[in-house]
Description:
Strand content: under 5%
Structural class: mainly alpha
Radius of gyration: 58 Å
Mean pLDDT: 76
Low-confidence stretches: none
Number of helices: 7
Amino acid sequence: xxxxxxxxxxxxxxxxxxxxxxxxxxxxxxxxxxxxxxxxxxxxxxxxxxxxxxxxxxxxxxxxxxxxxxxxxxxxxxxxxxxxxxxxxxxxxxxxxxxxxxxxxxxxxxxxxxxxxxxxxxxxxxxxxxxxxxxxxxxxxxxxxxxxxxxxxxxxxxxxxxxxxxxxxxxxxxxxxxxxxxxxxxxxxxxxxxxxxxxx
Length: 200
């Protein structure tokens, strides 16, 4: 009892009780914290499963999920291939359109050139027709028989009828059967050309 009445002893006992109580409380909280940490570590090491609207997970479902994932990847690859083909098709279409325009431009140019040639040819034929009209029928026959039939008919068509008739008579009266035959061909073709010109 004398010890308890000693202030120093009382203070020492108070300190011991306080420290003991603090250690006990600290230990209790530390154990709780350790249990929480272990629980979190356990959850963290569990395999992560995709969210699902059901509360069970089986191997079949995992296989189905993997299969769907593979199908999705394959579909993406096919979509890329289709997009690439469409791009190539569009490029081919653009190239074809470009080629078509080039061909059309060449055609227009060719038509223009042909018209120029025809105009120049017509001018030359008229000059020849005028020149041959001033020749004697015999001299004109000598030149015409050396020309191709189409050119000769064009020249005769551009000449006046009163000039053409003596030339054809000269050819028809020739002892050369080829020249006589050609005179008949010239006559037939001239008739056809004149008939075509009169047709509206």
